[in-house]
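Morning F.,

Quick status update on the modeling queue. The single chain you submitted on Monday has been processed. Sequence for confirmation:
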Amino acid sequence: MSFDQSFLDSLINPDQKSQAWLDERSGRFTSSEIHRLMAAGYREMTEAELAARPKKGKGSSTTRIEVYDTLSSGAMTYVKEKVCERLTGVQKYFSSYQTEWGDTHEPIARDLFAKLMNVEVKPSHFMPFSTMAGGSPDGHFVLDNQLKTIEIKCPEVSTNHLDNLRLKNVDEFRELHPEYYCQIQCNMLWTKTDEAYFISFDPRMPEPLQIRWLVIPRDIELQQRVLLKVEAAEIKAQQILVELTQLVS
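Structure tokens below.
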């Protein structure tokens, strides 16, 4: 997909982790945590479905069916957290040695990637989506007139970077990092891009092994599931807010 310069300009905001950035995220289902919505949700089978089950073997004792637009109990916990953020204005942002390590080395990784790829990589703005979703890629660049996003991970534990170095393909990446895979697919959805780069960086490694990236193509099936889960989560959040309004009216 060819990029539009005005759209690209709207992505630019170098102040991730700033108060303004936190305020934009408040009350929204964000790319880094939308995996919490993706757990399977179920409904009870109808009488006709129960009667059509296999008489023995696999599926013979099944009483529920997975429904993509139904939320699990864990997903509902995440919904309630976002409702509370909207009500209180207070958002949890955890800082630790691991997150500080990542925040310190992410710009270094971004610059090294840009140098090796011979592209200009810019930090990205928080991209709101629908009424309660959004996310922030770690950067974006243009290659062959196509907009690409990046997701940078700087593992504080070198064995995690070693695992990333050994990844052979996207399937292995998805299996090893399902949360990152979902995060990247969400950011591609928000930013209307078809391809993203997962980047792993560890400056303690020998120079040839400090950085590894993997190209992640758009996963339409997963993105469609994300849209269903986000819509279901937004509906539940609005229902809770309406209930609260009725309590005080």
